[in-house]
Specification:
There is one protein chain. By secondary structure, the protein is α+β, with helices and mostly antiparallel strands. It is built from 15 helices and six strands. Strands 2-3-1-4-5-6 form a six-stranded antiparallel β-sheet. Strand 5 and strand 6 form a beta hairpin. Helix 8 runs antiparallel to helix 9, helix 10 packs antiparallel against helix 11 and helix 11 runs antiparallel to helix 12. The longest helix is centred in the middle third of the chain and has 14 residues.
């Protein structure tokens, strides 16, 4: 599964009033708004909020917020990494809606109609000609071209939404930017490969913690290996990565991606940088960005084991477990030496999506090999009340 993301823009909105309105919306369980997982930013043109991952009901949220506020409300969204769109409401009335990929679910849903550039420009104080090219449903012959010359995402890429936001005066990166550059970021503790641990075999011994394999988000040596492939033209990027100035590296990598969108190393390195900044100084989580960059990297390097390991847990929401299962299945084929760990992870995903028969088959395979004996294995086997547990 792809990326699901929601952002709400309040042109002319005071951040405190908008926060109070969203707090009221959080009382509606159907919207699944988690206030402590939302991230706000104040812009010259108004306020905006990046909503929590599992928030739902794009239009219902826009409707309710617009009824509570005097300002217009635009709920922007990315659906499953396939397309983007928005709902624009004012005073409890829908003013406009747009989806970049028409007929996605069935004929007429979403409708094959352009967004109203005049209406949007009225509320956001921009020129219609500066946004109207974004508001045309994608046509196959137009994909892989830029709507405007300074865009970061091409037509057909769901992240065209960020270019549209910027044209409205709301920079996506400002909404999600970590708060401060750390003086130094500790490298991840060395993770134990399978060869260096000796599990307890099935007896009454205490199970061990599940070993964690290194991946493209945690392995600094692996990141620097890809950095060396960039060449002399990216010497500044290489230098800031070597000095662990990861926040400084992000804008350099973002600019490099804009000019070299087909260079896989740039995406992997930016994902690595986001992960090193994760959780520092209470900055906003960039897990959706890591997921996006790893997915882009895997388009170029589909059999990269380190990237597949990294992408599986990056965006751990219910909607993405099916993709996790596919990634883990591929890892079993590419890296059979660690089959027990992958099958255990896959068993959990099968269980979470409701396929308990498949989960049991994975657990039985692990038990038959008698090589893995971990807390997570024991827990799931007991959950299924398997023989001997």
């Amino acid at each position: 599964m792809g990326l699901f993301l929601q952002i709400t823009l309040f042109p002319g909105g005071d951040i405190l009033n908008c926060q109070k309105a969203l707090q009221q919306c959080s009382d509606d369980s159907q919207l699944s708004v988690q206030i402590d997982e939302c991230h706000w930013s104040q812009y010259p043109k108004g306020s905006a909020v990046l909503l929590n991952n599992d928030c739902c009901g794009y239009e219902a949220l826009a409707d309710k917020l617009s009824s509570l506020l005097d300002t217009p409300v635009m709920v922007l969204y990315i659906y499953d990494g396939d397309y983007w769109g928005y709902f624009l409401w004012k005073d409890g009335t829908r003013e406009d809606q747009f989806a970049s990929l028409a007929n996605y679910f069935r004929e007429g849903e979403p409708p094959e109609t352009p967004g109203d550039a005049q209406k949007v420009s009225q509320y956001f104080n921009v020129k219609p000609e500066d946004i109207d090219r974004y508001l045309i449903p994608w046509l196959e012959e137009e994909t892989n071209r830029y709507a405007y010359k300074n865009d970061s995402a091409v037509i057909g890429d769901c992240w065209q939404m960020a270019d549209f936001m910027k044209a409205l005066g709301f920079d996506y990166d400002q909404l999600c930017l970590p708060e401060a550059e750390p003086e130094s970021v500790p490298t991840a503790a060395p993770v134990t490969e399978k060869e260096s641990w000796k599990p307890y075999i099935y007896n009454n011994a205490k199970p061990i913690d599940t070993p964690v394999l290194p991946n493209a988000l945690t392995d600094r040596k692996y990141a620097l290996k890809w950095a060396k492939k960039l060449g002399a033209e990216h010497i500044e990027v290489i230098q800031v990565l070597q000095s662990k100035k990861y926040k400084s590296a992000v804008p350099l990598l973002t600019e490099a991606i804009r000019t070299e969108p087909n260079n896989p190393a740039l995406y992997l390195l930016r994902a690595f940088c986001w992960n090193q900044l994760e959780g520092l100084n209470h900055g906003m989580s960039r897990k959706p960005d890591m997921d996006r960059d790893l997915t882009k990297f895997l388009e170029f390097e589909p059999d990269d084991i380190m990237a597949l390991r990294a992408r599986c847990p990056t965006a751990a929401t219910t909607s993405r477990y099916q993709r996790h299962i596919l990634d883990l299945t591929k890892l079993i084929e590419l890296d059979p030496e660690n089959i027990d760990l992958y099958q255990l992870d896959r068993a959990y995903r099968y269980h979470w999506v409701g396929d308990d028969n498949a989960a049991r088959r994975d657990l039985e395979s692990i038990l038959q090999r008698e090589e893995l004996w971990t807390v997570d294995l024991v827990y799931l086997c007991r959950e299924f009340r398997m023989s001997g547990f």
